[in-house]
Amino acid sequence: MPETPGPTEPSLEEQIAAYQREFQDLDPQVEQVVSALSRLNRRMNVAYSRQTATLGISNAEWEVLKALVVSGAPYRLGPGDLAKRLGLTPAAMTHRIDRMANDGLVTRERDEANRVRVIVELTAEGREKWLEAMRMASVFEEDLLQDLSSEERAAFGEMLMRVLRRVEETQPDAGGRLSDLD
């Protein structure tokens, strides 16, 4: 007997109507924006996870690769710096680096200038995984925004940046995670 699918997520309109029914002070325009952003973020993360999975890496590993690339050549950072950039505890970062070093995506070596310090460096294989993930993501992202003109993309990007700046100003500690997910 085939499984019957569980309940589906209500449409945004249904969700907002339910919220308004239960909380009359709700601004439906604000809720539409915030709920749409939340759903978009969740769905994009699922899409990115599917893409990185085809490369044999997780989104968590993709985040480390990204952080190393963003740091610039020679793509090296200490585990503590990586943990801060990704909002992780040092223990969670160590666990992630262990997996990635075993998979040949990064190396971990003692800093010659300070033997106590460890340096994590992107390998050629790790850089190639990052490049392939970027190729896949750019195709997905272009498709995602295909219905917006260049001017609309610019305006939308600026509006999102203003909202992001507001959150960063009012919630300066919100860059990390409440708890480690891996």
TrEMBL record:
Q: Which InterPro entries match?
A: ArsR-like_HTH (IPR011991), HTH_MarR-typ (IPR000835), MarR/SlyA-like (IPR039422), Tscrpt_reg_HTH_AsnC-type_CS (IPR019885), WH-like_DNA-bd_sf (IPR036388), WH_DNA-bd_sf (IPR036390)
Matches recorded under Gene3D superfamilies = Winged helix-like DNA-binding domain superfamily/Winged helix DNA-binding domain
- Where do the TM regions start and end? none
Indicate the segments forming the HTH marR-type domain, all copies. Answer: 30-165
Q: Which PROSITE patterns match?
A: HTH_ASNC_1, HTH_MARR_2
Q: Which SUPFAM superfamilies match?
A: Winged helix' DNA-binding domain
Q: Would you tell me the protein name for this molecule?
A: MarR family winged helix-turn-helix transcriptional regulator
Q: Which Pfam families match?
A: MarR
